[in-house]
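Hi P.,

Sorry for the delay on this. The queue was packed all week, but I finally got your sequence through. Input first:
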Amino acid sequence: MENLPKFPSVTQLAVPLFIGLMLLEVLIAKWRGSARYETRDTLASLIMGAGSIISGMLIGFIGYNTLVYIWQLRLFDLSLAPWVFVVCFVVDDLRYYWFHRIGHRVRWVWASHVNHHTSQHYNLSTALRQTWTGTLTGIFILNVPLVLLGFHPAFIAFVYGFNLVYQFWIHTETIRRFPKFIEAVFNTPSHHRVHHGTNAKYLDANYAGVFIIWDRMFGTFVPEDDAEPVKYGIIRNLATFNPLKIAFHEWISMFRDASGSGLTPGQRLAYLFAPPGWSHDRSRRTSDMIKSDHVRRHPEDAGLPGLPSVGTD
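Then the structure:
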């Protein structure tokens, strides 16, 4: 693959589509009498999206150049045939599943990803609330296996663009559910609403990008329960629409926690890399603890999807 073509930016080309779909969603919501847009919240999401693009241009070269260097060590050199695109799309979606799961279970990565979950609304503009600091987490190393298998970093970025475009339209309450065979294989608005929920049963579930089969395979799938509406946001919601606070609040909190007085080296590391909500004095609650607390209060829910069979401390 010596003369690699220059691939277009799929997400940038899709911007008119994003705008058109958001306008359509607003019209449908108003027609139904259930408007789900809040001006300041939407503006914050749009600024976060623009900031993510700028951040990618400023520091994205760090991850890309690292992967280009690793490209020299590749085991294979795959072509640009259609079948290679399909294989890369599926494998990259599996990579995304694990990136997303790590992003919710390791605070260092959550500090970057949390801004996507800060909106207490769920509409198409929420999809644009993207990170400014993803490269700084180093999580791009999850692309290393794909590069070693023979997928060029530029090709991976091109393919991933289609993944991101797919994920845009699932950020909506306008669409309820699709036929069962679609819901069984693909990530849908119903599945992704669960992912954005702060309800105990919905925490840390449905990490899929395109194919929900990964969650079904790895035990993280939780169906949307019509009897329990999704509560959107994060456990401690931000009382601000300030994009700077949205982008950096968790980084600031994390380093403040890790630099506290009287902590052991292990505790300092845990504040950086343990699950979000971990604290050395158990003054806060991780998602696992929140789930256990819920089961202790509601033993009739024990063992339901997303909840443990017993409540433990």
